[in-house]
Design brief:
The chain has seven helices and eight strands, in the order H-E-H-E-H-E-H-E-H-E-E-H-H-E-E. By secondary structure, the chain is of the alpha/beta class. An eight-stranded mixed β-sheet has the order 3-2-1-4-5-6-7-8, sandwiched between helices.
Length: 231
């Protein structure tokens, strides 16, 4: 609360906010930890998968003893121990076109912690349609990207990435890359809720931790975008 412009009002805004994070893996694990620690009043966490041993290098919310457990159950246990004063709910259903609006409706911010663009585009469509800000990140190897979508004010995810990259069955991720981009997502979420600082709306952060290169690229709204072009 000592941060200039944040104060008690900023903390109260966090306490009154609802954030929905979709995915509790390499991005979602550190994101959830930091949002719970920051005092976001209500966290809705969506993941239908189980903890797998090869993922523990980056999914820091889950430990060796959690292998085989539902990620949602593992996350709920840890986060309640970290901050019992916030409300945490988990959803174990996969995101689909049929349920996506119901999952995110009522959220102040939705955070994309996914590993595929098909589901990311569903989240993007739902958030644009409902007017909910969406924070996006994606990682592979030592590289990652992040942007923030503010419906009606900034390009949406489909504007920024009109065609999904070819999906790979397996792709490499080192833990600190996911952690770094998750921290960017956490920062964007807190900034959107409190109004403190400048977000990545209308910008794309591209980070390569291998050679320490970081670019912030301006993005433009596509007037013919099938998701937000008429909005």
């Amino acid at each position: 609360m000592l941060i200039e412009g944040f104060g008690q009002e900023g903390q109260e805004r966090l306490a009154g906010a609802r954030v929905t994070a979709v995915g509790l893996g390499g991005l979602g694990s550190p994101l959830a930890i930091y949002l719970a620690a920051a005092g976001v009043g209500r966290l809705t966490l969506c993941d239908y998968k189980e903890v797998d041993a090869p993922d523990l290098n980056r999914q820091v919310l889950h430990w060796e003893g959690d292998v085989g457990r539902a990620k949602a159950d593992s996350a709920l246990e840890k986060l309640r121990a970290l901050n019992p004063r916030i409300r945490i709910e988990v959803i174990k259903d996969p995101v689909s076109r049929e349920n996506v609006r119901g999952l995110v409706e009522g959220s102040d911010v939705v955070v994309d912690c996914l590993d595929n663009f098909d589901t990311r585009y569903l989240l993007n469509e739902a958030c644009v349609g409902l007017g909910i800000p969406l924070v996006h990140a994606a990682v592979e190897g030592l590289r990652g990207q992040a942007t923030t979508v503010v419906p009606g004010k900034s390009p949406c995810l489909r504007c920024v990435i009109p065609v999904a990259p070819q999906r790979k069955a397996v792709f490499p991720i080192i833990g600190f890359t996911a952690g770094f981009l998750a921290m960017v997502e956490a920062a964007e979420t807190v900034k959107l809720i409190t109004g403190v600082g400048e977000t990545l709306a209308g910008k794309l952060l591209v980070a390569d931790l291998g050679d320490n290169s970081y670019q912030v690229l301006e993005t433009r709204k596509n007037p013919d975008c099938p998701t937000c072009g008429s909005r």
